[in-house]
Amino acid sequence: MDIHYLSALEIAEKIKSKEISSLELTQHFIDRIEKYDDKINSVVVRIFDQAIEDAKEADKSLSANQNLGPLHGVPMTIKESYNIKGQSTNWGIPDYKGNIAKEDGLAVQRFKNAGAHFLGKTNVPMNLADFQSYNDVYGTTGNPWDVNRTPGGSSGGSAAALAAGFTSLEAGSDIGGSIRNPAHYCGVFGHKPSHGIIPSSGHELIPNVPEPDLSVCGPLSRSAKDLEIALDIMAGPIEREARGWQLNLPESRKSSLKDFNVAIWSNDELAPVSKDISQRCEDVGKNLASIGANVSYTAKPEHDFLKAEINYQLLLQSVMQSGMSDDEFKKIEEIASNLDRNDLSADAILAKGTVLSHRNWIRQNYAREQIKISWSKFFQEWDVLICPQLATTAIEHDHRKMSERTIMIDNQEQRFFQQIFWPGLAVNAHLPSTVFPTGLASDGMPIGLQAIGAVYEDKTTIKFAELYEQEFKAFVVPNLD
To answer: How many angstroms separate the CA atoms of 297 and 300, rounded?
Structure first.
């Protein structure tokens, strides 16, 4: 395999053994970005001169027998929403173009401490609030498999850069599938960690924002092993909190796929998916059963999933709309005040969640706790739950207003955001979820499925993805020529 498609771990080993220098590798990635990224538009912030200098320093350190960490000399990119000193962090919002970071964000610091250096930052949707990646600052990012389709969002540039071989490793963020949706659309690996284990410090428009509900930061990569390395680098408390607590994620207790107890959930009337997607879930189950894994096609947690989806949507909108202007908020407040309390339509939930009072947030949080308990009981018997990430393969670019968008699923029209049901399963219950490639669909586009696990069993879902890839070799790369 070409060096730009090797895993970050493999690249680090080649640098360590001096098979290739960090400088040669960094220049190789730069050349590749300059050759192919004009049509994809994934690496929208480029700091190539600094990357060259950092690579030279990494080579000097290695010559002096100084090992800077597990990613010594490895070039990478990161989602635009993370702070890199001296670069604009604007989340695709034109009014924030002049928002220049005064220091590296925590994740950037931690990757640098592990020996990596940065080629630049990758594209996002405006305010990180879409399943696509386009904005008025950086333009539209295309999917390397088909630039007429989206790479997903909000970490769309991250997944596109990985799939195109522009970077060795990436980090994104996820509140509605923003790591995992792009991983699925682009055919790479992505991990949404258990809530709270990776600080969001430095993933921000303004400094010192407290940890948000639901949202997490996490890695994307071309191998599951890289996910684990990046997770170990990113995870752990900020300095202030480290005085009193430390993170101790359990290692996976599974070493073979046949050791796993796996539940397969291939489709649901609450958010129907395409035949390609549902069949792929079934096929993964058959693959696992063929090598001795314990597989069920009926096992699910016992709570009401419609109520759980409503609970998620209310809590999600409470977070996502918190930056709304006072005038906009007053308009939604008036709409919500005139709604029937039993109105559970999509528009009603949007309005009610937007103006959710603290009293009602506490009540919704209580309801969520019962959902968490239900998942916990489920994972006493099952190691992972395999299910869709989204309803279809990557969609064509659609820049209409959110309220006007629909999606066609096997010739059936569905609300665009109805499919958030699937990524929301793990988000609302604060569970880890790893998206892993399963090969291509009938339209030639990648399909990734998610493996959801028990809270803090991040390394179990990642290990599952690693073992599945080893056994079934499902990761493939696009041809850019």
So the answer is: 9
